[in-house]
Design a protein that fits this description.
Shape: flat
Radius of gyration: 27 Å
Largest sheet: none
Distance between the termini: 90 Å
Helix content: over 70%
Structural class: mainly alpha
Number of strands: 0
Order of helices and strands: HHHHH
Strand content: under 5%
Length: 143
């Protein structure tokens, strides 16, 4: 046994590794959360705009949650289809009121803004409507 003791590696290398690991983990978490939000939004908008898809998904979900047999699931599906058409009709009746209220809100906000801000606000409001407020399925088929 020779006299010089072995030197321990500097603690900084371990701290750097831990920081690098934390950074990679954080980046992955942020990316994963963003991708999940994008996928959820896309799915939600697709389902909102397609009553048939809503009925199909709700029927399957209830079938799993309630352990429905095939006959029960078929009867539940018929109920959901009737409900979907009634809700779509209700949406068509209410839709003009929803749009009128949004128009009033946009106008009220625009009156508080400078002309340059108003132009940006109108563009932003139109973008938000396009992304988050799809028209009812029956209205889409009319246009």
């Amino acid at each position: 046994m020779s006299g010089a003791p072995a030197l321990a590696p500097p603690r900084r290398a371990g701290a750097r590794r831990a920081l690098a690991f934390a950074f990679v983990f954080l980046c992955g978490s942020v990316f994963g959360a963003g991708a999940a939000l994008f996928a959820l939004r896309r799915t939600a908008l697709r389902v909102v705009g397609n009553p048939e898809l809503r009925v199909e998904r709700a029927s399957r979900w209830l079938g799993r949650r309630l352990s429905l047999d095939a006959a029960q699931q078929a009867r539940v599906r018929v109920i959901l289809e009737g409900q979907a058409s009634e809700l779509d009709q209700l949406r068509l009746e209410v839709w003009p009121r929803v749009l009128a209220r949004l128009d009033r809100t946009e106008g009220e906000i625009a009156r508080e803004l400078s002309p340059a801000q108003q132009a940006r606000w109108r563009a932003l409001a139109a973008e938000l409507r396009g992304k988050w407020l799809p028209p009812p399925a029956s209205e889409k088929s009319r246009s």
